[in-house]
């Protein structure tokens, strides 16, 4: 999905350059939808085959994942299973997202940085 998205990201008008997002959107059936995204103006036209998603302003806990993206699932499990409870925080239903900027080097690079944002109460 990311490869297809990167090939078309120039179609998104008024997109903020230099950063991208991976949105994890909860669905009513209990599943999740994952979207590759760029930040754009609220009134920007949506290219064919793409979707606009509003990420609500709310309180988020921010975590850092350093390393290849194939380790992200372990980091998410640690966040929900250990780190949030240890900090006395509770995740709430909402859009979780990954933020990548110039510190993200490549998907398999051991020094790539991805910031993870988890909505909390």
From TrEMBL:
Domain AraC effector-binding positions: 1-121
Source domain of life: Bacteria
InterPro entries according to UniProt: AraC_E-bd (IPR010499), GyrI-like (IPR029442), Reg_factor_effector_dom_sf (IPR011256)
A Pfam family assignment: GyrI-like
Gene3D superfamilies: Regulatory factor, effector binding domain
Protein's recorded name: AraC effector-binding domain-containing protein
Source organism phylogeny: Bacteria, Pseudomonadati, Pseudomonadota, Betaproteobacteria, Neisseriales
């Amino acid at each position: 999905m990311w490869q297809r998205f990167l090939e078309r990201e120039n179609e998104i008008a008024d997109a903020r350059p230099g950063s991208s997002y991976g949105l994890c959107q909860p669905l009513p059936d209990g599943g999740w939808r994952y979207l590759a995204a760029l930040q754009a103006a609220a009134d920007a036209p949506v290219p064919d085959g793409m979707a606009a998603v509003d990420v609500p302003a709310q309180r988020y806990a921010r975590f850092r994942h350093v390393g290849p993206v194939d380790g992200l699932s372990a980091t998410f499990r640690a966040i929900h299973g250990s780190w949030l409870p240890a900090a006395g925080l509770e995740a709430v239903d909402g859009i979780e997202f990954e933020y990548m900027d110039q510190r993200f080097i490549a998907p398999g690079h051991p020094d790539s940085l991805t910031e993870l944002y988890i909505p909390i109460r």
